[in-house]
Write a structure and sequence with these properties.
Two copies of one chain form a homodimer. The first copy, chain A, is 41% helix and 14% strand. The termini of chain A are far apart. Chain A folds into two domains: 8-45 and 270-368, Aspartate Aminotransferase, domain 1, CATH 3.90.1150; 49-268, Type I PLP-dependent aspartate aminotransferase-like (Major domain) (Aspartate Aminotransferase, domain 2, 3-Layer(aba) Sandwich), CATH 3.40.640. In chain A, the strands form three sheets. In chain A, strands 2-8-7-6-5-3-4 form a seven-stranded mixed sheet, with helices on both faces. In chain A, strands 9-10-12 form a three-stranded antiparallel sheet. The mean pLDDT of chain A is 97. Chain A is α/β, with parallel strands linked by helices and 369 residues long. Chains A and B meet through α1, α2, α3, α5 and α9 of A and α1, α2, α3, α5 and α9 of B.
Amino acid sequence: MRGPRFTPIVQALPATVPFVGPEQMERDRGAPFAARLGANESVFGPSPQALAALQASAGEIWKYPDSTSFELRHALADDLGVAPENIVVGAGIDGLLDSTVRLMVGTGDHVVTSDGAYPTFNFHVAGYGGTLHKVPYRDDHEDPDALLAKAHEVGAKLVYLSNPDNPMGTWLSAERIEAMIAALPEGCVLVLDEAYVEFAPADAVPALDVTDPAVLRFRTFSKAHGMAGARVGYALGRSDVIAAYEKVRNHFGMNRSAQIGALAALRDHDWLAHVQSAVVAARESIAAIARDNGLVPIPSATNFVAVDCGGDGDFARRVLGALVARGVFVRMPFVAPEDRCIRISAGPPEMLDALAAALPQALEAARNG
Amino acid sequence: MRGPRFTPIVQALPATVPFVGPEQMERDRGAPFAARLGANESVFGPSPQALAALQASAGEIWKYPDSTSFELRHALADDLGVAPENIVVGAGIDGLLDSTVRLMVGTGDHVVTSDGAYPTFNFHVAGYGGTLHKVPYRDDHEDPDALLAKAHEVGAKLVYLSNPDNPMGTWLSAERIEAMIAALPEGCVLVLDEAYVEFAPADAVPALDVTDPAVLRFRTFSKAHGMAGARVGYALGRSDVIAAYEKVRNHFGMNRSAQIGALAALRDHDWLAHVQSAVVAARESIAAIARDNGLVPIPSATNFVAVDCGGDGDFARRVLGALVARGVFVRMPFVAPEDRCIRISAGPPEMLDALAAALPQALEAARNG
């Protein structure tokens, strides 16, 4: 027969799209959103220094990027007190999760995560033929004991944990995570997704130990640094584990300006502090708006707040749909019981005003619908 | 044992780096290059409209990119007379080759290319466990007959051809490639790399037939559009084949500004025409410089010229080393007999002046060394 012969793994994959992005939702509804509070972006924007670096570098976009991300890796290493060889830069945490799964997972391999945790990780596990095992959240937190028990049971090669957590915004203590690391099964790597680490209290961040081959930590410029569109993330780990990425990564895949902008963002500590306090204020505003409407905000160590709508998933989905119809883009957890919540990103006052205006109507519509 | 268990494919891979980029070479030599003529970048730069779009979009880098590349795919479709469903956008041709190989190639699968053709394709084939078969160039051209014969012999799932060719700059007629397409074995897909298509004569470009499931064509904004640092490429094919990329690609992996800049570049036909004529002039200058030094330029349909240094690979490597030592970054083919050449990218007069000044000294150094 004429045409491609896809691999058995690919033939078995659904032709699904993991997310529908807000641009597609805007096209579908025929109008832009008034408040873009669904993707946990940093609506406060990038550092002015990063912005200037992006603009200044545009004229040299004709040059291929530095395939080693030399300057960015060295700056990160200096900041974190590790060596550049402990760091690999990739196209966001998404891209690095792809490479990570590819390095370790094939048909017949087992991976553990929480039911309702980051779906793009699951997409990659399926994409390389792995078998995914999910354990439930416990009291709106990821559950290290259940994750560990399942990892031991199935002989997992990877176990995924995000701390602070997405989509609930909750967090575990450093002590709890360090105990989990100590109890990992042989041959199992903890994929510790720290996308929101800059918003976490210090005692929620385990000590950075790059001598341990069983832990990979993933961080990003998409959240606190306000550069989601640039696609810059990095993974931290033992140098021999990090070196393995060289075998599979797209060496010239990192946008040149994005690397330069990320470097400038990293150096702008004032902007980071500004965003951190703006996020604290926005979390308090979202919580107040929730309470004003009789809803319960879940305490958050991220740049978003999960708000318990007080009903089941169908009710929360109706609230979400009614908000989206009113130009307020938010998202929600995928599975029960967390899907009783809607997830609202931190934003500036004008967007939260739009939320405050739309939420009572959305709740009324949901109660009537 | 504590730590990762890599897949058998990964364990067998060398920890090599496919290319050393010019930034790394500059760090190694402790000085910048005076002439950056080695990576077939468009030294003439991006369209002023693309530059303006990159700068204008920087402030919205806090937004995740449109995961569907909706506007860019629609604009490309309009330009090319195909449907948006015939197009997938990716992080340069490199990123799309990765996905393409991943979709079709696993352990035990066979792939055919030319010995000395694009090494990143080979990197991906090895990276997914495929077996690569190489056939020689014939008279400095890729050889469709040899590629087809080998593809039939081994039952190849993919056969790679670049037209115009890198690293030699030569080209095949549309008729020749259409005959090759007609003679593809069952279950074999032609990976037609058209990175340099905007520099090719019209009769070197086969008709675009997106009804054929056995052909995928790869194009880029890195060459004629002067945006190598942005990492934007696209693949063209039958809609059901293109749809398969949705199963594996990083949906949110495309830099937001890069998409916006590429769209502006696509619309700036005047700049493209300017670059095309500047490249013709630069090719003529490079050829003249070569002849002035007693060397033979190979006719080119790309933005570079392979120059026959008149000796063997060792001699050409010495010429190249002597040029690099004098601040002129060029590259060369990897295998004999093409490695008798050095490969010089089109550049503006001041860089070609630097080449003209350095080449006699480099040749003398090579002859003495």
